[in-house]
Specification:
Layout (H helix, E strand, L loop, with lengths): L4 E7 L7 H14 L4 E7 L11 H4 L3 E2 L5 E2 L2 H9 L8 E3 H13 L10 H20 L3 E6 L9 H14 L4 E8 L2 E2 L4 E2 L2 H12 L6 E6 L5 H11 L6 E5 L6 H9 L2 H8 L10 H12 L4 E8 L9 H13 L3 E8 H5 L3 H9 L2 E4 L8 H13 L4 E4 L1 H13 L6 E3 L8 E5 L6 H5 L4 E9 L4 H6 L3 E8 L2 E2 L4 H6 L2 E6 L6 E6 L5 E4 L14 H11 L1
Helix pairs in contact: 1-3, 1-9, 5-6, 12-20, 15-16
Bound molecules: glutamine.
Glutamine (GLN) binds next to helix 16 and strand 19.
Amino acid sequence: MQSTKFIFITGGVCSGLGKGIASASIGAILRSCGHKVFTLKLDPYLNIDPGTMSPFQHGEVYVTDDGAETDLDLGHYERFIDTNLSKLSNLTTGRIYEKVLRGERSGDYLGKTIQIIPHITNEIKNHIKKAAEESKADILLIEIGGTVGDIEGEPYLEAARQFHREVGQDNALFVHLTLLPFLKASGELKTKPTQASVRELYRRGIQPDIILARSDKAIDRESIEKIALFADVEEKAVIPAPTVKTIYEVPINFEKKHHISEIIFEKLNLAKKKAKLEDWEKLVNNIKANHKKKLSIALVGKYNQNLDAYLSVVEALKSACYFNNVTLDLLWVNAAKLEKKDQAEWDKLKKAKGILVPGGFGNRGIEGKIMAARYAREHKKPYLGLCLGMQVATIEFTRHVLKTSEVNSTEFDQKTKNPVIHILPGHTEEEEKGGTLRLGSYPCVLDKNSLSFKAYGSNKIDERHRHRYEFNMDYREVLENAGLRLAGLSPDKRLLEIIELKDHPFFVASQFHPEFKSRPLRPHPLFREFIKASVK
Ligand code: GLN
């Protein structure tokens, strides 16, 4: 193994403290110091990957360039660290067991008894080593999902303990994120839950090096001293992580106020390097300066009010708004309610300065999304369609501009007379149900007369996909003649990637998911131009 250093991040007290953001922030700081950072999220649940998990429960499925369907925390990592991650960056218990059990069936273990220790723990350690080797990272961040004490998390903590012992304390450290609850009645922050959760780590042979203390209030000196004493860490290594206005303040807080990189470099025996966070500071200042200039954008979906289900879309919208010096006022519009002609829902859609229809699977709310696309087209409101949002716009255009009846995607009506969206010939419906989605990064060539070309400033792009159905090229000519621009195609011209309306200020819809490649400091060109058009 080369000289990769390892940082394990665990969580204590309760879930939902923002371990992903805290880890991503540490990554952003170290990257800004000039280190090559890679990340690994270890998820203790038994699913093989998050691909089939409900966005209601688990939030969005984040897709990497190499087509892995992963946990949404990987999105935070990519956005904060601005590094493309891969299949290696997400590991679940389900996947480890799958591998070990397959090995057992094919005789790899020579008839031995297969056990959690050492077989499962070895597999976890092997994956960590592999991630370090293949990524060639200077620093590998390893976030252990869940909370210390969870039954599912035990093999990961044991593997981390062993790993730390094997690579030595100059090469690995533990960061533990906890919560200091505030008790109104006594008016104080409580450190006992933190002490208890550190003790849980000790029981597993793990000594934390850095404690990140989450709280809604400023943390007093006395609490810091207490935590340092009981957790047996240096006082400077107890880092307050108060709730902040925007998540982009987290790296600034860790580094500018608490010099976390110095502590990390010292413990990992690395030369000190200065973190360059000026761009983040500029972003935060811009957010604060423009917080009153609201821009209302309608997000027409089915997982309403559920930020996590559309996390990357919302983040991409926010970044594009900051870039255009406005703040996002997100209007959640429920597609199923639009369909039922719900007045309040329609009012929201009409009030919005721009309309976005995101990706999705299944029948629910489809007609409502088609109505939203129609409204945007007819009222010349900026429209951005993402994946399913492109498919509904195509159905809408064919139905109402071409005045054709019985138009649909075969996903919603298998026997439709005019399947403008369908499964690519050569793939049978049965094969496709096995889970073969078009996943990951694919190249696309842009039409030089398109808005998309102008936005990207280049005619060759690569974007990430996650879908099963495609535009039906049999309809290409009639639709083009009616005013639809096929703005982006695969290099072999067999697959449609972007549609635009010629006679509209901004109507752009992609078969891919641009949201996955948007970055806070570098908003995605399509989002950037969509917001620019909506501000007008
Ligand atoms: N359900 C559509 C398909 O499978 C769109 C998927 C999506 O929006 N991600 O093609």
